[in-house]
UniProtKB/TrEMBL annotation:
InterPro entries named among the record's database cross-references: AbiH
One Pfam family named in its UniProt record: AbiH
Protein name: Abortive infection AbiH-like protein
Domain of life: Bacteria
Length: 410
């Protein structure tokens, strides 16, 4: 069985990288305010994306503004007028400081209510934000933390409770085929366990031999799997055969996990697919936009016969490289389980996620949640988002791993 690991922004955040949209917007305004403060006594200041008209008597107030929230507070008390040249930047700035923002979702929300006279300006503004975001990602430090913790998850053994019900019997059958000759002979009482030199293996064999008199081989293996018998996992090598890290981020922190082991021998072949492109790589340019062509509005866009509505749809951008085809080759090849590392599973990637989650070879979907400082976690949030990517709710209930069998990423 193979393993497909979906890596989203939470993965970078878990490594200590400030790559969220909010980090980006905070940094943008920190730099804007620094420029504004250099000319603080000017009554009019025009920057790249905003223009401020300031009453001279109140202009010194800008010196004490540390972020956009401070600036907005001052505009309410003083004669300061902020003019945005980029309306989309204005929207995501406000959303970010009100609560939380997903730039790609905001773009699609506006696009659905955009007439043909507005589309060019929206796309221009969105592309400007894309450029600003990539500039920000290029300048942030890339030192990574928590590598040892996360690599243990990447190469962990396949667990019985992680798999959907239909695949549990398949796993047991595979294990029975993997049992070595010595173990088979002992189960048949042809030789004794004393011939086995390894203590762990001998202990396990004796236990199986004792249980086999009371239960079938399949029942014994199931009990041992449910008990988390480490020696069974070690002897039978229950690591996934091949691991594909599907990186939705533009950073390359995932490259740290190629060629590494996780405290024990990991025989899995690990590869990486930078599905959304990479920074500064012309052969794999970044993909920034929306990926839900299952949505009813997408069909309306196609029927308009106006290509400008499709400029930032991911399904079209995927055709610029072979990344998506390589993903399909992986999931079409063998049974696979899905691990989710820091991906919100929101609808901006819905078409791809639906293809993965409902694929006939998909054995399970296991989210690794983020544990907050107050002791709560986001498992339920992730699962709610996952559900939107399933059209078949029976598969959703069977394939998504229960919270009790999940764990935090770090």
């Amino acid at each position: 069985m193979n393993r497909l690991i979906l890596v989203g922004n939470g993965f970078d955040l878990a490594h200590g990288l400030k790559t969220s949209y909010k980090d980006f917007i905070d940094d943008f305004w920190e730099n804007e305010l620094k420029q504004l403060q250099l000319g603080v006594y000017m009554t009019n200041q025009k920057l790249n994306h905003i223009e401020l008209t300031v009453n001279y008597s109140s202009s010194f107030i800008l010196e004490f503004s540390k972020n956009y929230s401070d600036l907005i507070f001052e505009t309410k008390l003083n004669s300061i007028n902020i003019i945005f040249e980029n309306d989309f930047l204005k929207l995501i700035t406000k959303k970010s400081y009100d609560n939380w923002v997903d730039i790609e979702n905001e773009y699609y929300t506006i696009l659905k209510n955009c007439d043909q006279g507005q589309i060019d300006n929206l796309n221009k503004n969105f592309n400007e934000v894309k450029m600003l975001f990539t500039e920000y990602l290029n300048k942030i430090p890339k030192e990574a933390s928590n590598i040892n913790i996360i690599e243990n998850h990447i190469c962990s053994q396949i667990k019985y409770n992680d798999l959907s019900a239909i695949y549990n019997d398949n796993l047991i059958e595979e294990i029975l085929k993997k049992i070595n000759t010595n173990l088979v002979e002992i189960l048949n009482d042809n030789i004794t366990a004393n011939n086995i030199e390894n203590d762990e293996e001998r202990e396990l064999i004796l236990r199986i031999r004792d249980l086999i008199s009371k239960k079938t081989e399949k029942e014994v293996i199931k009990d041992l799997l449910l008990s988390g018998q480490k020696s069974l996992c070690k002897i039978l090598n229950l690591n996934p055969e091949s691991i594909l890290i599907l990186n939705f981020n533009y950073t390359n922190i995932t490259d740290n996990y190629v060629g590494r082991t996780a405290g024990y021998e990991c025989n899995s072949n690990i590869s990486i697919n930078h599905i959304h492109g990479e920074l500064n790589n012309e052969k794999n340019p970044i993909i920034f936009g929306f990926g839900d062509d299952i949505d009813e509005h997408y069909k309306k866009f196609e029927n308009l016969n106006e290509n400008r509505y499709l400029d930032f749809f991911k399904s079209i951008a995927y055709l610029q490289t072979s990344n998506y085809k390589k993903l399909l080759e992986f999931i079409n090849g063998e049974d696979f389980q899905v691990f989710i590392f820091g991906h919100s599973c929101g609808i901006s990637d819905r078409t791809m996620l639906n293809t993965i989650f409902e694929h006939d070879n998909c054995t399970s979907v296991k989210p690794f949640y983020h544990k907050r400082k107050d002791g709560t976690d986001n498992y339920t949030d992730i699962v709610q988002n996952i559900s939107r990517n399933f059209n078949d709710k029976k598969k959703f209930r069977d394939r998504v791993v229960n919270r009790t069998d999940c764990e935090s990423l770090t």
